[in-house]
Design a protein that fits this description.
Number of helices: 7
Structural class: alpha+beta
Order of helices and strands: HHEEEEEEHHEEHEEEEHH
Number of domains: 2
Length: 300
């Protein structure tokens, strides 16, 4: 397959209505996991995961059983499976956010799983409660392309993740910010940003380097790969990294590599790896991390 096939074109303006509606549906899934999973540092307990057909909740405990919610972006449905040998399926397309919320909650009730969630979406401007959100846009082709990008990104991110032996997150998908990401930690605690809400107080309480991919938003309407270090050294904005297409955005407070530049490359995976290695190496060095001791010794 060519790089263009593996990394399909997906302009923000072509699918943002579908993305916004899908984002809210994924928040319903994520909030169910939030309500039932015990807390894990940096909110890892709420994260979702890319799988071979879409995005999954992973295992969610309920009383003396477990269940999982799998969003299939090939067949465009949602399957709920329980360790009690119960399997249910609902539609992902052709329904509004409110209808999706109702169908999913009714299905869980039918499976003898009772859960209540905060219906107000997280980490989005002007949130609309999911039970009265009537957005229903769903372009199957665009959703599939977006998921395909997540799959390719996951492969590269896992390769980058393997080179680090310190504390590190899985490569996971956060339904609040709607991005696929991973995080490395220096091993030192730090103070969260001033006046932080509960999310940031527990997400940014250790020195970390975070990297990921997001499909764009109103403030930055372009799909892009990103990275940042927290706390950021004073000279972060002046740090120059390769590849030449990468840059530091003062407005976003991030190193960015636009997705279209990746698509245009003859070696997209290598370009992303260069971006991740350069932004990590130079920002972590500037922040005083012990980079050498945190590096994995690869067998062979």
């Amino acid at each position: 397959m060519t790089s263009v096939t593996l990394w399909p074109k997906l302009p923000y303006e072509d699918w943002h209505e579908t993305m916004d509606a899908l984002h809210m549906k994924m928040q319903v899934v994520g909030k169910i996991k939030l309500a039932l999973n015990p807390f894990l540092n940096h909110w890892w307990n709420v994260a979702l995961y890319v799988d071979a057909s879409g995005i999954t909740s992973g295992l969610i405990p309920y009383k003396n059983s477990i269940f999982e919610i799998n969003c299939d972006f090939i067949r465009h449905n949602v399957t709920i499976k329980s360790s009690n040998d119960i399997v249910k399926q609902i539609q992902l397309e052709s329904c509004s956010v409110a209808e999706f919320y109702r169908m999913l909650m009714e299905t869980l009730n039918d499976m003898q799983i009772t859960v209540e969630i905060n219906k107000l979406p997280s980490e989005v401007p002007d949130p609309v409660p999911c039970d009265i959100d009537h957005r229903s846009s769903y372009d199957k082709d665009k959703v599939y392309k977006w998921w395909s990008i997540l799959v390719q990104s996951y492969i590269v991110f896992e390769k980058f993740r393997s080179d680090f032996r310190g504390k590190a997150s899985p490569i996971h998908f956060f339904w609040g910010s709607f991005d696929l990401c991973g995080t490395r930690f220096s091993g030192k605690e730090c103070a969260p940003p001033a006046n932080s809400g509960i999310i940031m107080r527990f997400a940014e309480n250790e020195e970390n380097f975070t990297f990921g991919f997001w499909a764009g938003n109103k403030k930055y309407p372009k799909p892009a790969f990103y990275s940042y270090i927290y706390p950021a050294p004073e000279n972060i904005a002046s740090i120059k990294i390769s590849p030449k297409q990468a840059f530091f955005s003062k407005e976003q407070g991030l190193f960015l590599l636009n997705y279209n530049d990746v698509r245009a490359s003859d070696a997209p995976d290598d370009l992303i790896m260069e971006f991740l290695e350069e932004s990590y190496g130079k920002s972590a060095s500037a922040a005083g991390w012990d980079i050498k001791s945190l590096k994995t010794k690869i067998p062979g």
